[in-house]
Amino acid sequence: MTTHGDDATGRRAENGRGEKRRSMGRGGKWRRRVLIAVAGLLVAAALAAGGVAVAFPSVAATTCPGCYGMTRLRPGLYIEPGLPAAREREIAAVVDAAERRVAAFYGGRRSTPDVLACASAVCYRRIGGGGERGVAVLNRAVMLSPSGIDVAIAAHEMSHVELHTRLGSAAGRVPQWFDEGLAVVVADDSRYLKPETAGDRCLVSTDEALPRTLDEWLRAARADRNTYAKAACRVSRWLAANGGPRAVLDLPDNLPAEPPDNQPDDLPATSPPP
Ligand SMILES: [Zn+2]
Fold it and tell me: Phi and psi for 143 in degrees, rounded to 5?
């Protein structure tokens, strides 16, 4: 398990608003320290369970959003404090619309990731964000940067969480390019895919092998801006050839225990659509 960043465009949508720190009394300070300590223990537990590197403090921030200055707008949605009511409504509407996209693809949602949304770069840095627009953390929470408060970005990250929730431990055998390409399809991201009405939705296609691991993926995506479009193309064609979303849920039964290395077609063709 790891954190997972996307769309590292380096862009930051600064809104010019300075960080608003809540002034805390002595008791508040101690409460904050205790909460951070608890979050730290949870992170340690996550590390022990996962046995791999995780990005701190994003894990701690998603474990205890309040410890990192986030305020709860409603259950499961944490935002930067002090925003105008109109901005709060806008963020909630983006999250709602993103959840609807995920539900529309799968016919419902099994995951309910907490969402932490920052309207300023200062807030996003404080909760452990980097240059990405959005990130799924440990497959159970989603962090959105100022430029990630966008339906396609939020739905993309939620798609990662939903896929991993639905596939459970088998998700580890899904190549990264599939996870990413599927997220583009689920998010209906027009930067990387033609509209559904287009028939073949590919903007860029390739017969080359696509990155299997997260590290390979991040490297490739940095080097080639078409990486997301290529993965989305291959996933959209695979879905069309295999009966749509249902084929995704059948994947665990069809994935090889040891994925073949560097094969361009490292997903099984399941039964063709009726
Ligand atoms: Zn992604």
Answer: -110, 135
